[in-house]
Description:
Layout: H1 2-9, E1 13-18, H2 20-23, H3 32-47, E2 51-56, H4 59-66, H5 76-100, E3 104-110, H6 112-116, H7 118-133, E4 136-142, H8 156-166, E5 171-176, E6 197-201, H9 203-208, H10 220-233, E7 238-242, H11 248-253, E8 260-268
Parallel strand pairs: 1-2, 1-5, 2-4, 3-4, 5-7, 6-8
Antiparallel strand pairs: 7-8
The chain binds adenosine-5'-diphosphate.
Adenosine-5'-diphosphate (ADP) is lined by residues 19-22, 176-178, 181-182, 184-187, 208-210, 212-214, 217, 219-221.
Amino acid sequence: MGDIVEEIKNAKTIVVKVGTSTITHNNGTINLYVVERLIRVLSDLRNEDKDIVLVTSGAIGVGCSRLKLSKKPDSLPEKQALAAIGQINLMHIYSKLLNEYGQIASQVLLTKDVIDDEQRRTNAVNTFNTLFRYGSIPIVNENDTVATEEIEFGDNDTLSAIVAVLIKADLLILLSDIDGLYDKNPKYHPDAQLIPIVHGITSQIEQYSQNTDNSFGTGGMITKLAAARICNRHGIPMVIANGDNPYNICRIINGELVGTVFVPNGKED
Ligand code: ADP
């Protein structure tokens, strides 16, 4: 127990992923209250010499809100066009806030073919390392405007775990609209119990996940557990915590047990 707390406290390279539901209101507009606090916390960690990567969802949701669409359209060209509109708006806000705190924002848009190809993967790693050397906070998203089924990660939970492995991160934090992993979906089951700590990914843990009911976010706990599996295999601790209060990131790094902590042990069934 003490070991994982020390490991998390000493984490030097940290990937933080925020979900659409955390950074946007229900109507898709950006939740400035949360985003402002998130950027302040990440800037402070950077000031402490930690290397930080922010993986952010929300581009399509923000694009929908800019065009005043009440729901996400179904067609691929429409979704990709909305991602193009939303991504630049999202980056504008992140970059503005990071600048205010004296930080240097950078944008890395990835598709799966980059990771699958050795040469391109090496290029991506070298770019991340150089951005860290420059003291920048890279903001990562799937390159939604060009991604098709064959080259997409599919969800940003998996993407953030793949990025964590790529840059040999010491910790992955997934911020969501929920306190952590429960034994059943608390939205439908008021008696659901939070699971504070998970050792390895067992079939019982898998059973706890159900699909999401949220109209802009994708993924739910299924993709968060897929991310946990990747981290587990690569010895990277992962935490799911509520992003409504970005200070949860500080609490985690100060060694408090917040949300659900996944302790990697390489075992799964
Ligand atoms: P995000 O946009 O942050 O990635 P998602 O909506 O994709 O968030 O996933 C979080 C949602 O997963 C919760 O709001 C909840 O409705 C759903 N969920 C399903 N099963 C569980 C579970 N066992 N524990 C917690 N949340 C669950």
